[in-house]
Amino acid sequence: MAKYLKQLLRPFSSVYGGIMALRNSLYDKGVLASEQFDIPVIAVGNLTVGGTGKTPHVEYLLRLLQKYRVATLSRGYKRKTKGFVLADAQASAARLGDEPFQYFCDFKEVTVAVSEDRVAGIRQLREQRPETEVIVLDDAMQHRPVQPSLNILVTDFYRPFFKDFVLPAGLLRERRKGAARADAVIMSKCPPGLSGQEQERLKLEIKKYTKPGTPVFFTAYSYGNPVSVGLQQPVSKQILLLTGIANAAPFKQYLLSEGYTIVQHLAYPDHYFYTEADLQRVQQLVKQHPQSNLSVLTTRKDAVKLASASLSGLVEQLPVFYIPIEVRFLQGAADFDELVLHHVQHGRVR
After folding, report:
1. Over the stretch 247-276, which tens digit does the pLDDT of each residue have?
2. N or C: which end of the chain has fewer CB within 10 A?
3. Is there a single domain that holds both residue 169 and residue 41?
């Protein structure tokens, strides 16, 4: 059924893809303005709607660039505010969006800001933080009014852009050839044991759409030990899984491989903001399994939203833990680091 539906949607995908191709062409030819800046601006983005693993890669860059005065600028998807917002003592997921607030919580030396208009956002960011030496743009592949000095494309191993189709028949925001704007490509969420031969095969598929010489890297998730954000007690192997992310399948697979039993999975949409009613439901489910000493496991992105003032009282009464996630390069980590650091040190602007 899904196959036939995709075929029915293909004409609409052609129309949408054509509109996006025309838009890109107007930017490429200079008909539509695209602004450069005199400091390094590193964009991390994708061609696909949601769930490719951009956030852990942004965090990798923030750790890599820690000796610089770094700022990160995001749109702030689904935040409750508008316009430019600079993170401060009043910061919250509602004010910034969940991912920018996560950066703010975990990277105290990084300036975090959000703005729908990235050009205006960069200008205001530099006015208010003139000491900034490098800016990392989160989810900016299609934000053509800004011309980044380094463009990093992230694509999901399980949903690579070269096998996908433009919306609505697929999940691509634009045609595959948009990958030609990338200065480096990272295939994320790879199996840790992905062979060198398979990596070479995937590189050939990716390089059909990129500029000649564009490097391709492969990363896997590295999961940390559970971190308590609620009741201070040992984590149980019997868990209630709570997620509001685009694709929870890799996370579930990891938990099962580590011997966890998922008694129930409460799966909410990506960027979901939890309510008191949601936490009361979690509380009831935990009480229904007293014999299994049920723990609540979630992601870091979800945990920062559970820290809101309206929910923290309920969370403190529950055995809630999050699992930290970092990315690990299967090979070529030093090459990637050198690419980024050389770019920042020499201030190259394309």
Report:
1. 899 899 999 999 999 999 999 999 999 999
2. N
3. yes
**109 domain-assigned:** no
- Tokens 């770094």, located at residue: 70
Digit-coded pLDDT (tens) for 73-120: 999 998 999 999 999 999 999 999 999 999 999 999 999 999 999 999
Same domain, residue pair 11 and 155: yes
